[in-house]
Design brief:
The protein is mostly helical and 719 residues long. It is built from 33 helices and two strands. Among the domains are: 7-34 and 93-278 and 286-443, no CATH class; 464-593, Serine Threonine Protein Phosphatase 5, Tetratricopeptide repeat.
């Protein structure tokens, strides 16, 4: 199968087409907000928002928690976190820059995949992996290469990866994944010195390690490279079974075995080092099949999940941001009609595997082998075969496996073209790309905000308690407490031990003053999850509000027991000690909260207020000055210190501090009132009257300002 040499403009045109489709499919995501997991990965991640040393990202997980902590998710992706830090350094928390970076990365991955496809078609079409000096263009391969890359560029299942900022992990890992494969292709070449091959092999290994530090799934490139190496050497299972061996020299085979062995050993070492961080702990609701006692049930359900993943690649119109809880119910009977999907999946997959083993040696067989390697190997970490995972389905894990799927589909169009004509197949393939592109554009609009995303999820998984829980959270944020309560109660009805939903619903009841109901709900939350520190703290708040101080103290201490570094729990414990007349313990609690989190503003403020109420003004001054040095942009500290200065008759200092507070927050009626008091005490009645009047203009209900103004007017009248 020969052809003409490919002119440079040809590849330029293909590249432009692929990038255009990739960007056009997901361009709308650039104007999206931070949604779902983005909030925890970006907005509350101390590795991004604080000036922690860069090296700290290598000791923490993806969410900013120490990777050795019992509460860590164990997602170790330090290089991805560094890219977030770069985004934050360049543009703060403007989501536009984060989304644009994802879009650019996706376009680069698509370009690399285009090159991978061109190399695969070229290498696999020649017997025994013998390559020509350049990729050739022929009537059978040019569209196959382009179609595979275009399909990958616009596949709707990639929307979560591109539109969700946390998808950065998949994108960067895929970039290194394809680079490693292209480098290893050159390593397999018989041309070049041994030194060159060793350096290229080291580069392949390094890229595999970097891919793993972006996302754990990246290490699977080792397996793909080994398969690619053996197929390029002409290794064919059918020939081996017939005791026939490919026509390579012993030296070439020795080099191939050395390469593969080196890669496998390096992969095992890197995986072993990665596993030192420990495995995450999941709940049954995260992955119900993994917690089932029956081996047969687990096997059947894992198989059904594989078929669903395949269906999402084939028919990406059934997409959801979360598939946990009862979104996919368990198969518990051998008469379940869904077993037809399981049988179909295994029938197709085993047919392809058998063809790769026993089929007659050909270019199609070699292409199928590589496509299967790209499809299956990157999916293994999500298969529950090596380790249990914390999800049922996750569209983002299909980003790399979809590369193999796209090659298989493109190969299928090549076969069909022999029966229906190439023009017809090119037309139909183009239509598929257009439809996928439109679906991706539509799906991207659903990732614009959490409200749109969660609403789309409930349409796909109406019985998913987690989707309802997220709708409840968004409703609370928007002030729609009626919708929030309905969503939380339905989530709890569907999953009675859903600790997060119980906790949030308890908070909702607490905020509405329904303390008895809130206590009952929060007790259910801690019963469902006895180590749920936040629920214990919230239970303590509710109990304290009902004057159940002894029970509240026990709840707070239990929260601290399960989360040693919990400044919010110490803060609320301090408030309870104030209410029960134990100021010394309150001081100790606030101090501990500040020790754990130096910028805990509420603890600083309440500690200063406690000293002020105890008339320990010198201590209050020390606390507030220290607080200002830690959090210099917090207006209330300047105000409070100004009030303290007024109480000890240091009026000029108090005036300066209150003016500073008003400079930062000019429309505060309270600040104007207290500045008026400072002027009033200094008998500067004109300025006192001005600030009292300004306070009343801002807030006519400010009684202190009105009373002081009336007193001032009587004083002036008497004079």
């Amino acid at each position: 199968m020969t052809g003409e040499m490919v002119p440079s403009w040809y590849w330029c045109v293909q590249s432009v087409l692929v990038v255009t489709v990739a960007i056009g499919s997901y361009l709308h995501c650039c104007w999206a907000a931070f949604v779902f997991d983005d909030n925890e990965a970006i907005l509350t991640n101390k590795d991004i928002l604080t000036d922690t040393p860069l090296v700290s990202v290598f000791s923490n997980d993806f969410w900013g928690t120490s990777v050795l902590s019992n509460t860590s998710h164990k997602s170790y992706r330090p290089l991805t976190v560094i890219t977030f830090r770069i985004n934050y350094w360049m543009g703060g928390l403007d989501p536009w820059g984060y989304h644009l970076t994802n879009l650019v990365l996706h376009a680069l991955v698509c370009l690399l995949f285009l090159r991978v496809c061109a190399c695969v078609w070229e290498d696999m079409r020649l017997p025994n992996g013998r390559k020509t000096s350049a990729v050739s263009a022929n009537n059978e391969s040019w569209w196959s290469v382009l179609f595979a890359a275009l399909l990958f560029s616009c596949h709707p299942v990639h929307t979560e990866t591109v539109a969700g900022v946390v998808g950065r992990a998949e994108l960067t890992s895929a970039l290194c994944f394809f680079l490693a494969l292209l480098v290893h292709r050159h390593t397999c070449s018989s041309a070049g010195s041994v030194t060159r091959q060793v350096l290229l092999l080291l580069l392949t290994t390094a890229l595999a390690g970097v891919a793993m530090l972006f996302k754990e799934q990246g290490i699977t490139i080792i397996g793909v490279c080994v398969v690619y190496d053996l197929v390029m050497m002409g290794l064919d299972p059918r020939q081996l079974l017939q005791l026939k061996y490919p026509g390579h020299t012993r030296r070439e085979w020795r080099h191939s075995i050395t390469r593969c062995s080196t890669l496998l050993v390096a992969g095992l070492l890197m995986t072993g080092l990665r596993m030192l961080t420990g495995a995450p702990t999941f709940q049954p609701s995260d992955n119900p099949a993994s917690f089932h006692n029956s081996t047969l049930t687990r096997v059947l359900n894992y198989s059904y999940l594989y078929s669903l993943n395949s269906w999402l690649l084939l028919h990406p119109w059934w997409l959801c941001f979360d598939w946990s809880m009862d979104c996919v119910s368990l198969i518990t009977s051998l008469y379940d009609v869904r077993l037809v999907a399981v049988a179909t999946f295994w029938g197709v997959l085993l047919s392809l595997v058998l063809y790769c083993v026993f089929g007659k040696p050909s270019a199609i067989k070699r292409l199928t082998t590589i496509a299967l390697a790209l499809l299956v190997t990157p999916f293994l970490p999500a298969s529950n075969l090596l380790l249990n995972v914390g999800f049922v389905l996750a569209e983002r894990v299909l980003y790399l496996p979809s590369a193999g799927y796209c090659i298989l589909v493109s190969m299928g169009t090549t076969v069909l073209s022999k029966h229906f004509g190439k023009k017809m197949c090119v037309l139909m393939s183009s239509l598929v790309v257009l439809v996928f592109m439109l679906q991706s554009m539509k799906r991207t609009t659903e990732w614009q905000s959490e409200e749109l995303l969660f609403t789309s999820g409930i349409r796909v998984c109406p019985h998913n308690a987690k989707v309802l829980y997220n709708i409840g959270k968004v409703s609370v944020d928007s002030g729609d407490t009626v919708m929030a309560e309905a969503a939380y109660t339905e989530a709890i009805r569907l999953h009675s031990e859903y600790d997060q939903a119980l906790n949030n619903y308890g908070n909702l009841l607490k905020d509405s003053g329904r303390y008895s109901e809130a206590e009952d709900t929060l007790r259910l939350a801690v019963a469902a999850s006895p180590k749920f520190a936040a629920a214990w703290m919230n239970l303590g708040i509710v109990q304290a509000a009902q004057n159940k101080t002894q029970e509240a103290e026990v709840s707070y201490m239990t929260a601290i027991q399960h989360r040693r570094k919990y400044p919010d729990a110490y803060y609320n414990l301090g408030n309870m000690y104030i209410d029960t007349g134990r100021p010394d313990r309150a001081v100790a609690a606030f101090r501990e909260a500040i020790r754990l989190q130096s910028d805990h503003r509420l603890s600083w403020g309440n500690l200063a207020l406690l000293y002020e109420n105890m008339e320990l003004y010198e201590e209050a001054e020390k606390v507030l000055r220290e607080a200002i040095s830690v959090v210099p942009d917090h207006t209330h500290f300047y105000y409070s210190l100004g009030v303290v200065m007024g109480r000890v008759n240091r009026f000029k200092e108090g005036e300066e501090l209150l003016l500073k507070a008003l400079e930062m927050k000019p429309d505060s009626a309270k600040y104007h009132t207290n500045l008026g008091v400072i002027y009033h005490l200094q008998k500067d009645y004109f300025l006192a009257k001005h600030h009292y009047q300004r306070s009343l203009d801002l807030d006519p209900t400010m009684h202190t300002a009105r009373d002081n103004l009336n007193k001032l007017m009587r004083t002036n009248h008497d004079q």
